[in-house]
Amino acid sequence: MYNSQLPTDGSNAPKGTSMEVGVYEPRIERHGNERIRSLLKSFGLRTSLIRLKVIDALLSAAESERSLGVRGVHSHLLDLDIPLSFLSVREVLKRLCSEGVIVLNPDKSYSLHPQAAAILHRD
User: Fold this and answer.
1) Which segments in the chain show pLDDT lower than 70?
2) Looking at the 3D structure of the chain, how many domains does it have?
3) Which end of the chain is more exposed for a tag (fewer CB within 10 A), N or C?
4) What domain range is 111 assigned to?
5) pTM (2 decimals)?
């Protein structure tokens, strides 16, 4: 079936788009994730998409001086169109907590452990 939106010259870029946009945007995002990857590695944890997104959500909340519990993290991820189940988010938070990457505060919100925050700010 012929699709008029696909290029016919063998390139993968749709007509009217700049190749530069596709080249530079992922590097910016990946650079942000590199700090979190380094953090997970320093705690002996494998990198996974859900761990990256959960830690990023906690970092975003901390930057805007908000606190997030399980529901808050889950809602934040859904707002970003990241379809993770509530149970998955809860289990990741529990695992990160047990490994010392994050802490459960008395108000049932989560935040980075001071040691983890120091590692992130060091890089």
Assistant:
1) 1-32, 123
2) 1
3) N
4) 19-122
5) 0.71
